[in-house]
């Protein structure tokens, strides 16, 4: 019947159908059940209903389609096939320190991997209860924690500095069997001052991600000595926890130091609850016979009745420092293991890995050859190692929303292998950071970079959008306030992956390896779609202009509406967002992308002409100057509806008509007051955004504008400081200003290392291509490089950390720390690799 109706549809006018159906109201109910001899009238009614139904169904399907498009994966083969993280396909990268948010945590690249990790607590203090360390937290105020060496693959050595003692966490892998082999970890606690006794508890745990697997703790004479387990991707395994080693000195003072053992066998619904659950399992016991000193000890087996079995097992060891604890993960499929990976064998293997690391480091970065001192080289090794040691493996789905979704919905579940900007503060994937991260990572290991970039590109949806902040899995979500979880598909983020891809792709094309070929084949259609997403969704009103979407013209409390998408959050843009504003940095990013696309397409024998044309157009200096050069300001600029004359003020209380009544509660946050009407003009803030045509090497080498830029860079009243280039000019009205009552300046003066790196890269370029300003560029390059390296190193020595950004007046590190995302690019700056 439906088919019948559809066929007749062209002859049926809506008016007729309405009248017909009204006349036959009584028949309506019968109609669907009747068959055969229908009179013509009934047939027409049937047809009408079908048409209406079809329209409705089509409408609802279309609405559903619009709602779902955001969560529809791009229809193209994955770059990283589903099995590529398995021990069978990629045994080398299966195990790692893939939980960057934990001070020391190990897991595998199985999507439901068991996790292993460390917590610790200083005992016998005045604090009740004493703080328990687990996830990296700036509030812990540690004096530092840094992977001194980490190769991203086989081993890592980290030092964690508490006020009274240091903790060294080392781990190393040993291949064998069909599940990627074994690993061992050693945790050594050493007091800073041996004459001050300190008692510390070390907690080492194993936990399953929900119930996929088994954990069977083994007790020997009341002590937890090992955990036997099984998991579908790992097979059988055992975590052995031999007795702690107490070094001879500890016992020297007289009697043998007291060692207390305890354990906790329990159940956790989610991995982000481990610490809370364990805290609930602590009880107070007497440390000494006189019962004068209490300490905290785990309370044994506490498994709820209604769960399949324990999935969280902790061993606690408490004693006076120093002591060393080892844990040995042994894979069940490993045969002919020989000696256990413990004690001398462990030390010897770590030592040989460290030697390999040192040799490889010098081979790639040549810092010794460049005359750097040993402490500077150790610092550079730590910067690289923290980037590699911070690589995580996450699995889950983002919460996303498009304008067709009333509520946020779940993206598809997927893995993400990625570095992170900062372990305590941003322990998850960020799209625009990751391109910078991979400038460094790809120098160390092109294979790791390809794996990371492939994972990101596989997160692309049918529109070519990639959510810019990836908050996957319960451990990652627990770190993010809920208002920041949802990702919107109108919002782009700088396509920084084109920076590392430029060189990587050249290598892959040269290599002739079949796996590289397959990679490129899967990568290219994704890059095309990605490029197209930027080139279409972020374009401006005028042809060949671009605008960051996602700025909110309705905000009232911001001095300048944020541009989070650009990555430069509060960097001042047009004061009144409009659809015809244009952003010079975005134009340059897309120019870069078009250029790289042209190169890739050409070397793959694909059609590259259109990319070349777009690139030529976007880098045409005449057109660029027309659209973005402010002759008044003598600088490249955004353009839009703008006024500088605005400030934040406390709102005035409303007039109070009835003195007896209390005024209604009001929002007392400062609001923006506009002091002079905005007009369409160039935005005259001078800073990183103004530099983009230079940063991305678009300004012609013989352009007098290059000369102006070089002079502005070195002008201390504008961007130049002794510590690197500040983000906006000291002369700017926005310099150091809060953007709202509660938002301190972020990109309004501070020195950021990613931008300084791009600047050095540009200076390096302009000092090597023929042109009238070569020598000038060379001088600026030399001075800027020296200032940056000196200051970042000095601050590391002074504070123990590499920082998110640096104060332009004092050079002091600011913001989250350790921040060994793009601030770790200092290694490439030292090595002069651009
Ligand atoms: C991994 O998957 C690919 C296709 O998705 C397949 O060709 C390959 O044989 C698989 N490899 C293994 C070791 O299972
Ligand atoms: C980018 O967009 C413009 C239109 O804004 C179009 O003319 C050009 O061909 C596009 N470039 C590519 C490579 O698709």
Automatic annotation (TrEMBL):
Region Disordered, annotated ranges: 1-33, 645-668
InterPro entries: 6-hairpin_glycosidase_sf (IPR008928), 6hp_glycosidase-like_sf (IPR012341), Glyco_hydro_63_C (IPR031335), Glyco_hydro_63N (IPR031631), Glyco_hydro_63N_sf (IPR038518), Glycoside_hydrolase_63 (IPR004888)
Domain Glycosyl hydrolase family 63 C-terminal as annotated: residue spans: 342-832
An annotated Gene Ontology molecular function: Glc3Man9GlcNAc2 oligosaccharide glucosidase activity
Locations listed in the record: Endoplasmic reticulum membrane
E.C. code: 3.2.1.106
Top EC class, one word: hydrolase
One annotated Gene Ontology cellular component of this protein: endoplasmic reticulum membrane
Catalytic activity, reaction form: N(4)-(alpha-D-Glc-(1->2)-alpha-D-Glc-(1->3)-alpha-D-Glc-(1->3)-alpha-D-Man-(1->2)-alpha-D-Man-(1->2)-alpha-D-Man-(1->3)-[alpha-D-Man-(1->2)-alpha-D-Man-(1->3)-[alpha-D-Man-(1->2)-alpha-D-Man-(1->6)]-alpha-D-Man-(1->6)]-beta-D-Man-(1->4)-beta-D-GlcNAc-(1->4)-beta-D-GlcNAc)-L-asparaginyl-[protein] + H2O = N(4)-(alpha-D-Glc-(1->3)-alpha-D-Glc-(1->3)-alpha-D-Man-(1->2)-alpha-D-Man-(1->2)-alpha-D-Man-(1->3)-[alpha-D-Man-(1->2)-alpha-D-Man-(1->3)-[alpha-D-Man-(1->2)-alpha-D-Man-(1->6)]-alpha-D-Man-(1->6)]-beta-D-Man-(1->4)-beta-D-GlcNAc-(1->4)-beta-D-GlcNAc)-L-asparaginyl-[protein] + beta-D-glucose
Membrane-traversing stretches: 41-60
GO biological process entries: oligosaccharide metabolic process; protein N-linked glycosylation
Pfam families documented for this protein: Glyco_hydro_63 (PF03200), Glyco_hydro_63N (PF16923)
Coiled-coil zones: none
Record field: compositional bias (Basic and acidic residues): 1-31
Domain Glycosyl hydrolase family 63 N-terminal: 94-282
Pathway: Glycan metabolism; N-glycan degradation
Biased composition (Pro residues): 653-666
Mode of membrane association: Single-pass type II membrane protein
UniProt keywords, alphabetically: Endoplasmic reticulum, Glycoprotein, Glycosidase, Hydrolase, Membrane, Signal-anchor, Transmembrane, Transmembrane helix
Function: Cleaves the distal alpha 1,2-linked glucose residue from the Glc(3)Man(9)GlcNAc(2) oligosaccharide precursor.
Family affiliation: Belongs to the glycosyl hydrolase 63 family.
Protein name as catalogued: Mannosyl-oligosaccharide glucosidase
Organism for this UniProt entry: Plakobranchus ocellatus
Lineage: Eukaryota, Metazoa, Spiralia, Lophotrochozoa, Mollusca
